[in-house]
Amino acid sequence: MRGQDDRQAYDRGTSLFSPDGRLYQVEYAREAVKRGGASVGVRATDGVVLVAERRIRSSLLEARSIEKLHQIDEHNGVASAGHVADARQLVEEARQTAQIEQLSYDQPITPEQLTGEVSEHVQEYTQAGHTRPFGAALLVGGYVDGTPQLFETDPSGTSYEWQATAIGGNSDEIEETLESEYDPEISLDAASSLAVSVLTEEEEDDPETVAVAVIDDDGYRTLDREEIEDLL
Amino acid sequence: MRGQDDRQAYDRGTSLFSPDGRLYQVEYAREAVKRGGASVGVRATDGVVLVAERRIRSSLLEARSIEKLHQIDEHNGVASAGHVADARQLVEEARQTAQIEQLSYDQPITPEQLTGEVSEHVQEYTQAGHTRPFGAALLVGGYVDGTPQLFETDPSGTSYEWQATAIGGNSDEIEETLESEYDPEISLDAASSLAVSVLTEEEEDDPETVAVAVIDDDGYRTLDREEIEDLL
Amino acid sequence: MRGQDDRQAYDRGTSLFSPDGRLYQVEYAREAVKRGGASVGVRATDGVVLVAERRIRSSLLEARSIEKLHQIDEHNGVASAGHVADARQLVEEARQTAQIEQLSYDQPITPEQLTGEVSEHVQEYTQAGHTRPFGAALLVGGYVDGTPQLFETDPSGTSYEWQATAIGGNSDEIEETLESEYDPEISLDAASSLAVSVLTEEEEDDPETVAVAVIDDDGYRTLDREEIEDLL
Amino acid sequence: MRGQDDRQAYDRGTSLFSPDGRLYQVEYAREAVKRGGASVGVRATDGVVLVAERRIRSSLLEARSIEKLHQIDEHNGVASAGHVADARQLVEEARQTAQIEQLSYDQPITPEQLTGEVSEHVQEYTQAGHTRPFGAALLVGGYVDGTPQLFETDPSGTSYEWQATAIGGNSDEIEETLESEYDPEISLDAASSLAVSVLTEEEEDDPETVAVAVIDDDGYRTLDREEIEDLL
Amino acid sequence: MRGQDDRQAYDRGTSLFSPDGRLYQVEYAREAVKRGGASVGVRATDGVVLVAERRIRSSLLEARSIEKLHQIDEHNGVASAGHVADARQLVEEARQTAQIEQLSYDQPITPEQLTGEVSEHVQEYTQAGHTRPFGAALLVGGYVDGTPQLFETDPSGTSYEWQATAIGGNSDEIEETLESEYDPEISLDAASSLAVSVLTEEEEDDPETVAVAVIDDDGYRTLDREEIEDLL
Amino acid sequence: MRGQDDRQAYDRGTSLFSPDGRLYQVEYAREAVKRGGASVGVRATDGVVLVAERRIRSSLLEARSIEKLHQIDEHNGVASAGHVADARQLVEEARQTAQIEQLSYDQPITPEQLTGEVSEHVQEYTQAGHTRPFGAALLVGGYVDGTPQLFETDPSGTSYEWQATAIGGNSDEIEETLESEYDPEISLDAASSLAVSVLTEEEEDDPETVAVAVIDDDGYRTLDREEIEDLL
Amino acid sequence: MRGQDDRQAYDRGTSLFSPDGRLYQVEYAREAVKRGGASVGVRATDGVVLVAERRIRSSLLEARSIEKLHQIDEHNGVASAGHVADARQLVEEARQTAQIEQLSYDQPITPEQLTGEVSEHVQEYTQAGHTRPFGAALLVGGYVDGTPQLFETDPSGTSYEWQATAIGGNSDEIEETLESEYDPEISLDAASSLAVSVLTEEEEDDPETVAVAVIDDDGYRTLDREEIEDLL
């Protein structure tokens, strides 16, 4: 009981460290990320694939409207997990950042720069007193200057670069599978199959249950139903 | 008792996550939406119909003044549910957004864009520290460039696209009926009948108890008493 | 006791929903409205009448100074109930709104527009964190372009249009009487008699205990003592 | 005990209504008004008299410095009661308001306008979150365009017009006396005698214990010791 | 115990009245004034004298640096009591006020005006929510246009005019002595002796233990050691 | 238990001192620094080396993305420890500071100036009320005008200059080793070996587990895998 | 226990007085000053000497970086005690103040003016609601226009002028020694010896354990190791 009471003393303000140096509100925001469906990203030699789980609660719901894949600009895309409305704010932040970079320097923003800017924005919400952290994580995939890149930003505002990873519900299990099956020399087609398979593993193979976007030399593109079926 | 006390530790500030990653104030705002009458939207091949329940507490009340249907611009309308004054603020926000889009780009805003902008506004009220979420949900129906669309925004600031759906009191039961009776090839007339019937099901067939708006190639239009009677 | 304690957990901040989606501070503000004297409004075919109860606590008090009838512009008037100083702020807000409309568009504001603007102002005080709701309700009566209209705005910021209604102490009983006695084809003279009678019902027929204003084709006008006596 | 605890739940923030619609901080500010000496105002046919009690705690204190009578402009004066420093702020507010009116419209402000402006200022301090109400009440007496007027503003920001009244300690008893002795056709001289007598009733007739100001066709003027003695 | 608990409910915010209309934080600030040494002011026919106690805690301390006498301008001086750093802020406020008056109107500010401005500043710190009252009181002595004046401002922001008075520790006892010994026709020299004697009464007659300033036709001047010795 | 309760009274606001003059939130932020991997800096006669531990939790993670070494400008680098997102904000602050100095004075900023500016920024977050301290420490190494310098800034905003030191987890043990092995006349190559060895002591000698940057006459440079292997 | 609880009621906000007129947060900040090493200042006839204790926790730490002596301008220096990062902010404040004075009036600021300005800044942090006091004290020594001066500013924002004094840990004991050994006619050399000896009394005579700065006709200058050895 004591431990419970002690924790409650520090977890009700984003501006507070606990005695052992933890930020509980940030950790709870990570729980919010785990509550939603998973998203997966895999970097191939010739591009990046982003796949997001679709949890369609009604046959009348247009699946595309709850999709967690978002084009940021011609060369970058995002897959989100966690609190949907929070993720949308970060996607808008990312789009504006990309647009400003393009306008300012007349060159596309790299996934690394994009993730860095968004992560700083996310961090600020963990330190200011009158707000809460974002309850969402993003995978940022991009292909700029012939280089495919895959990044993650989490609710603390930390960014990571991955060869392949997953965010959201079940992400730990999916990451284990990716670690054993990923090959750095993988092609974008094989990467797409891998990403879809790790996400649908435990579900029936219904192309409607996932959304897929690839970013390669031709830019950002979402796959249609037939293309997804080919991957299953 | 413990569970009760624990919850109370996290539900009295919009800027707080609970240890399991939930935002209680947003969930309570969803309860506010459920407290009011229901609104229904159905998308047909040639338009969208919005229907709202009227709970007339006095014979001296002008029914139109408590109507939950609002024209946004020539091509878009909104049906609301929940806290009436909160909904009105969102409707004003939507109108201004539509007007700015029209003035800036000289073309009508689509329901999708409109819902996106309003949803971002709603999300901000769930993250800032000195305010509360909006206790209202909206159905946004529109017909732009020959495309009928139906969207929902909820108190978390999440948006969904629907073929047909309901918000407010009893919305779960209404959605079940819609799922079994909706046909994607439905005409606007049939959609109007369907929407009215699912809402009035348990009440006597009084045209005064519902308000109906259709948005099609001719724009936004509310039905008069005789037209509603024809639908019953 | 539990229920009492639970409620107290949510009713001490305007920015908080209770678990069942209620805004307690707004409900308490409605209680503030009930604490004062009643005001009545009746819409006739040729105008609107507003009548307010006068509770004169001293023979030395100038009755007109505690009157709850206020002219807004040439064509609109307000009857208030509840916290007097809060009502005065709303009346000032209404006057400025009317003046701005007149100056901007060179046409008088309608009661509907006026009530809408004031209601939005009232709603904002229910959502911001560092203030309280207004403890006052208004009846807005007006006659613009040959159309008489009667509106109400309450502490939540919701507006209603009425044929006839009452706000403040005893308003429920008065509304019941109005429902049984109101006739939509009523003339302004008959409406004035009705409004005065429902308010003075239980008191001696003293013209000093009520204030009466009529708004018709000739604009806003308050009745003098003899005119009120004729209505008794 | 329960009642005590319940009240304490609502009386420690100016932005809170209690469940029965009361604003406790405003009521406590009214208590602050009662803690000080009384002030009396009486309207005559040809002017207004303001009288304030002087509680001289030391023979070395200059009585005029604790006087609660203040000239606002040539035609208006104020008698205050309650928290002295709060009253002074309101007097300054009144002076500035009068000056602005004079400069803007080149005509003197009436007591009614003056009281209205000050009352709005007072109300705002009862609704904003980071301040407290003013612990002072004012009597505003003036003589503009041949019309004598006497107003009161209280800590809630409500204003009243009076023929004669009292504020501050013992004001209820004084008002009773005024009600029985006041005659609307009273002359300023008789009004002055009445005002002084109701205030000094229970004290020895020492001209030092009261301050007297009259406002009539010749403007605002304070009486000297001999003039006060003549009134006793 | 109950009383203790009740008081604690209201004394921890400057923006709160207690149920009986008191402002506890202001009363506690008055205690802060009582904690320091006393200062005395005496008005003579030809000037004003200010005397402040010096509590020299170390022989290495330069007595002048802890002096509580401050020249404001050529014609006004201040003696302070209470929290030293708070007093210094008020002295700076006074100096700026005097300078602005001089620059704006090309005439010296009177002690009365000066005290009024400073008192308003002090009052504001008792009403705003995010600050505390000043824990200091001032005696303002001045000689302008041939008129000597002595004022006091206290932590509530109230000002008083005195013939002679004391602030700070032991001020009640000193005031009693002053009341019995003060003569309105006193000369500045006699006033100086009186002021010094009431302050040093209980201490050995060490000229180092007091600081003395006189303000007369020649302006503000502090006395040197010999001059003080002459007064003992 | 008492001690525990007492501490909790003061550790939940950055703006509070405990009775013994401690700032608990700053101390907890130091714990956050200890929770991460260690970073080491060693100053040689001809440059500075910074080495950071890499904790690679997955084989799919790009090690460079979690590196805690950051180039600030041509002549300065930073090694961080603690909360990663907080550190990144400080690195950005450092970069902007360096850029502004370069632009303003057309000369590179020294490590001392750089650390001073960042430390002031860090201190402000320990004193303001609506934020929390930074949960990160930095080592700043630079080589400007032929002078190598190594500084540290900690969560309190204090800066230190070192010959060699460590921050983060295990830093106390590493510092002990450095104290016994450091020689002020050490060359950059030897310093690099020393820094790597103290960090990898308890781990297998895997060049992937550390990142190394040197700053010397040629500016800032990170070592590649082979160069690190040579140091092991 | 009661006393403990009572104190805790008032010591957790800088904007609160306790019932006996104390500011606990300021008193706790004074404790923070006592937690660090001591600094000593001695005024001689021909200059001022400042000496600060060095607590070197590691042989690798550059002693000069933790020095508590800071040059402010050519003619003024500061020795600090207490929270190091807080002291640094005050030093920066002092430097800017000196620079502005120099630029505005083309003459050096005196130690008295400098201390006054810094003290006002410090006081403001004891009165505003959203911050904490500075946990640092300063000794300000200067030599302007042939006059040596030594001042202290403490966490309350009070300033004192001294012939000789100490701040920080053990300062009470050091002050006692200074009182018995100080001679107003002391030369700067003798003052330097005195200052060093009182600080190192209980430690071995290691010149590394103290830092010494003198300010005389030639301006501010720190002593090197040999010069300090000569003083031991």
From TrEMBL, chains A, B, C, D, E, F, G:
GO terms for biological process: proteasomal protein catabolic process; ubiquitin-dependent protein catabolic process. One of its GO terms (cellular component) is cytoplasm. The keyword Hydrolase applies. Keywords: Cytoplasm, Hydrolase, Proteasome. Residues 10-32 form the Proteasome alpha-type subunits domain. GO terms for molecular function: endopeptidase activity. It is found in: Cytoplasm. PROSITE patterns: PROTEASOME_ALPHA_1, PROTEASOME_ALPHA_2. Belongs to the peptidase T1A family. The 20S proteasome core is composed of 14 alpha and 14 beta subunits that assemble into four stacked heptameric rings, resulting in a barrel-shaped structure. The two inner rings, each composed of seven catalytic beta subunits, are sandwiched by two outer rings, each composed of seven alpha subunits. The catalytic chamber with the active sites is on the inside of the barrel. Has a gated structure, the ends of the cylinder being occluded by the N-termini of the alpha-subunits. Is capped at one or both ends by the proteasome regulatory ATPase, PAN. This is Proteasome subunit alpha. It comes from Halocatena salina.
